[in-house]
Amino acid sequence: MASKVNRIGLSIVELLTPSVVQSLPPYFHGIDTSTKAESWLTKMLAESRLCVVESKNADDVVGFIFAYDDGSGDVNIGYLLGEQYWGIGLAGEMLSGFIEIASHVSSDNSSNGSDWNVLIGGVDNDNIASIKLLTKLGFRPRSSQGSEVASGVSYFALTL
Predict the structure, then answer these.
(1) Angle at alpha carbon of residue 20, lines to 14 and 23, rounded to 5°
(2) Is the model's pLDDT at 137 over the cut of 60?
(3) Element (H, E) at 121
(4) Among the four residues 21, 88, 101, 121, which has the most C-beta atoms within 10 Å?
């Protein structure tokens, strides 16, 4: 297990490049050592369900999906993919798989099956590729609120 954690730590440093994290929150930036990667991983595991996305043909970590479940049924998701994997359809494949799994996931607070009702993704308005991808996968724009407009982020929702 320790070797897998070490490999993920190295992958974090390799994946969280300036281009990948440019529109992400500050705690995604400047992860350039294994110590910082370990701290970032600890934070992400404490705050979300973290899915490590690996290549089918190798043990390479290609990205991450994050699900923030507050128990309300609305689950905020985020995802990132290493730069070298952009533009080849991998983001669509990983999110499609995640949506399928999410439709069957129960939150930690529930014993009655899936209580994830809606997936919500926030996307920087300049990230046209992610906006198109979410729309293609069935996400629909949510009405904007003042703070969202000011922050340059649009939110999209998918009812499961």
Answers:
(1) 145
(2) yes
(3) strand 118-124
(4) 121
